[in-house]
Automatic annotation (TrEMBL), chain A:
Pfam families reported in the protein's UniProt record: BPD_transp_1
PANTHER family attached to this UniProt entry: GLUTAMINE TRANSPORT SYSTEM PERMEASE PROTEIN GLNP, MEMBRANE COMPONENT OF AMINO ACID ABC TRANSPORTER
Record's subcellular location: Cell inner membrane; Cell membrane
Family as reported in the entry's similarity comment: Belongs to the binding-protein-dependent transport system permease family. HisMQ subfamily.
Location of the ABC transmembrane type-1 domain: 20-207
Membrane topology: Multi-pass membrane protein
Keyword Cell inner membrane on entry: no
Keyword Transmembrane recorded: yes
Biological source species: Pseudomonas urmiensis
Designated name of the protein: Amino acid ABC transporter permease
Automatic annotation (TrEMBL), chain B:
Domain ABC transmembrane type-1: from-to ranges: 35-230
Family: Belongs to the binding-protein-dependent transport system permease family. HisMQ subfamily.
Lineage, opening ranks: Bacteria, Pseudomonadati, Pseudomonadota, Gammaproteobacteria, Pseudomonadales
Domain of life where this protein originates: Bacteria
Species the sequence originates in: Pseudomonas urmiensis
Presence of keyword Transferase: no
Cellular compartments annotated: Cell inner membrane; Cell membrane
The protein's name in its UniProt record: Amino acid ABC transporter permease
CDD domains: TM_PBP2
Length: 226, 244, 272
């Protein structure tokens, strides 16, 4: 009985593998887009102009306090099925909608990580740089940001792991990810023993991807501990 | 009351947001039901997660490897896998198995499964925060307690736990705010929370954005409430002058 | 009065892993005496005190306090019984930061000795007055200076009405201007007849209040005797060298009149 289920699992593993790749694709896209957006928002948070700071603050508040599932539903329904680009219609794929949906809270978190990293640089660094007659932009670029990047790395990696786990929500809006594939497999095979096996395999697959990231993050945190 | 609501809807209508569904008895009652369900989910899960967190933290710091290792394994698996998958494993797998053996005598409802899974998931995070808090209590403070003839148990209750709780409090409050957001996964197994209710409504009409703003505001309000509660607790438990 | 010493250490040996810290300590303290242990860092002075209160266990030797053989205590109940009689004041004060000063003094008497809370409160306030901190009863440790915290720590140890108190370099972590207020409290205790064992670097204070002084180096008692004897006429080469280094003056001072020491008493006036 167990052997039969394992054999069935092996039979389905290519489908599950393709599903997992979808999750990874979404997670990489989301963290990439989220980081770019987040750094932008983060810089706005530090702007000397109050309105810019206000907009950035609002962005962070909204997207940090929103359930990720709600945001994914939002982007899935709000974006059209296809868009016109340079005269021809391109389908707006579901996975892209989820990617954008996850990039939004990711950007808010990146902005906070960035702000925290800048705040953790001792004020004495700023003073020393200013006394060397560097402008604010120069100080940021040459002194503060390089140090920030190091401090941002562990929480950023932690965020990536969380985003990867968030990609599981894609299955709820029709993306053919790992969970969706597992559901199809379970419903097709329709044996309770196999259902147990396939869902716990999904758990194991996510674990084997996210746990090493967590350990690496811990190692980096210890190395950069100050 | 309803005149205020009419006025508000009218104003929002001018901005292009159609909130007229609030006057539809079916829609508004579903939303209200959903909101209440979400509140109950939050309350039960918060209490459950704190209990789980305390038990796990005790196991993690017990010093006995037969307690600490399983606890550590549980924490790592829970923290590194998606909540949704855990929910499916619980609801689709375990529930199915229970149904097969108990038939109609299965006491677990989908609501109960959500509370259980979220309590376990967030409990793992609480456990880490409490563990860090317990380990942050300086050994010399405990030494001083023991030199005053306090027993191990008295040291734990009078010195170690109060201090650990104060150290862990900010992280615990953050976890609880996350928990509020996490309850949205209940909609995935058709528990009628506010997210599910909204989905039901917007699949029938074209008011996704309006509903989105409404439920985001609702979750935001709940998070804000938990945050305030955390601030009050932090103020009550503060240690004047500590840390310099 | 010649009688059985209250504290007696015989042939105490203790090693951490392969590192011998105490190599045969012999020490005794009569009831009501004040005994100081001096010596270079790493000589094992603090270790001796920790053995006396059961925080460390020697590999060999006998430690008798009153009727108790400390090195044979194993059960928690037995250690608790010991610590009801032996007060300990740490270098880093170690007050409980989440409790007010008053509550710091109440925890042990109410939870361990089972005293009535109101009674314990009255006695705690008396003790706080004694260390001149009655007005700080509601304050929290984080709001006090180092010297104030250490005085609270002494009051906290006194609240248990111990038979003797051990002081482990209690002024070493303090800013110089706060040392005096703490030493004044200790002096008062010795004058009242409390049995005290001090590990200290305050040589002049040790000379002033001690009945006996022990000089340790490398885990052994090099020399011991009355304060006058050890400080004025040290017999051992090493004692002389240490005192010379520590006091910055010649080891033998037979020609120095005694008042020279007492003229420094102004330094130990109590600051409030």
């Amino acid at each position: 009985m167990a052997i039969e289920n394992l054999a069935t699992l092996w039979h389905w593993s290519p489908t599950l593998g393709v599903g997992l790749l979808q999750n990874i694709k979404i997670s990489v896209g989301a963290i990439g887009l989220g980081t770019l957006l987040g750094l932008l928002v983060g810089m706005l948070l530090l702007s000397p102009l109050a309105p810019l700071r206000g907009v950035a603050w609002l962005w962070v508040q909204v997207f940090r306090n929103a359930p990720w599932l709600v945001l994914i539903y939002f982007t899935s329904y709000v974006f059209p099925f296809d868009i016109q680009v340079a005269g021809s219609w391109l389908t707006f794929p579901d996975w892209l909608k989820v990617t954008i949906g996850l990039a939004l809270p990711a950007s808010a978190n990146v902005a906070e990580i960035f702000r925290g990293a800048v705040a953790s640089i001792p004020g004495t660094q700023w003073e020393a740089a200013r006394s060397l007659a560097l402008s604010r932009a120069q100080i940021l670029r040459m002194i503060i940001l390089p140090q920030c990047l190091q401090r941002m790395l562990p929480p950023w990696m932690n965020l990536y792991a969380v985003v990867t786990m968030g990609t599981a929500l894609a299955s709820l809006v029709g993306v053919h990810d790992l969970i969706d594939s597992a559901q199809i497999a379970a419903n097709t095979v329709n044996r309770s023993g196999f259902t147990v096996l396939v869902y716990f395999s999904v758990l194991a697959l996510f674990f084997s991807y996210c746990y090493p990231i967590a350990r690496l993050t811990q190692r980096l945190e210890r190395r950069y501990a100050f | 009351m309803s005149t205020v609501l009419h006025g508000l809807v009218g104003q929002l209508g001018q901005v292009g947001l159609d909130y007229s569904f609030l006057f539809d008895a079916y829609a508004s009652s579903k939303l209200l039901e959903g909101a209440l369900t979400t509140v109950w989910l939050c309350l039960f899960s918060m209490v459950g997660s704190l209990l789980v967190g305390m038990v796990l933290a005790a196991a993690l710091t017990s010093g006995r490897y037969w307690l600490a290792w399983p606890a550590r394994a549980f924490v790592e698996v829970t923290r590194n896998t998606p909540t949704l998958v855990q929910l499916y494993c619980a609801f689709l797998v375990l529930n199915m198995l229970i149904n097969q053996s108990l038939g109609n005598a299965n006491p677990m409802t989908p609501f109960a499964w959500v509370v259980l899974v979220i309590s376990l998931h967030k409990g793992a995070f609480h456990a880490e925060a409490l563990r860090a808090g317990i380990e942050a209590v300086p050994a010399v403070t405990l030494e001083a307690a023991s030199s005053l003839a306090l027993s191990r148990r008295q040291q734990l209750l009078q010195v170690q736990l109060p201090l650990a709780l104060r150290f862990a409090l900010p992280a615990l409050v953050n976890n609880l705010i996350d928990l509020v957001k996490m309850t949205a996964v209940a909609s995935a197994i058709a528990v009628n929370d506010i997210t599910y209710a909204s989905i039901m409504i917007w699949t029938q009409g074209d008011n996704v954005i309006e509903l989105m703003i409404l439920i985001l505001a609702f979750y935001g309000l709940l998070s804000f409430g938990v945050n305030c509660m955390g601030r009050v607790l932090e103020a009550r438990l503060r240690m004047p002058g500590y840390g310099h | 009065m010649p009688s059985e010493p209250l504290i007696q250490l015989r042939e105490v040996h203790l090693a951490f892993a392969d590192n011998p810290v105490l190599r045969g300590i012999e020490l005794q303290v009569q009831a009501g005496q004040a005994v100081s242990i001096i010596g270079p860092s790493g000589s094992g002075k603090s270790t001796i005190l920790r053995c006396m209160t059961g925080l460390l266990r020697p590999q060999r030797g006998s430690i008798r306090i009153g009727d108790t053989q400390v090195e044979q205590l194993h059960a928690e109940k037995e250690l608790i019984a010991l610590r009801k009689q032996v007060g300990f004041v740490f270098q880093q004060y170690n007050l409980f930061p989440h409790l007010s000063v008053l509550d710091n003094l109440l925890v042990a008497p109410t939870k361990v000795l089972g005293r009535n809370r109101d009674e314990a409160r009255d006695q705690a306030l008396v003790l706080l007055d004694k260390v001149r901190l009655g007005h700080k009863a509601a304050a929290f440790p984080g709001e006090l200076s180092g010297g104030q915290q250490q005085r609270v720590a002494i009051a906290r140890a006194l609240a248990m009405r111990p038979k003797l108190i051990l002081f482990d370099e209690v002024t070493s972590a303090l800013d110089p201007e706060m040392v005096g207020e703490v030493l004044a409290v200790i002096r008062e205790l010795t004058e009242e007849g409390m049995t005290c064992v001090l590990v200290t670097h305050e040589m002049r204070f040790a000379e002033e209040i001690s009945d006996q002084v022990y000089f340790t180096e490398h885990g052994r008692i090099v020399e011991h005797g009355s304060a006058e004897q050890l400080f004025r006429a040290p017999q051992h080469e090493r004692t002389r060298a240490f005192l010379q280094h520590a006091l910055g003056e010649g080891g033998d001072r037979p020609s120095r009149p005694a008042p020279d020491v007492f003229s420094n008493l102004g330094r130990y006036s109590l600051s409030v």
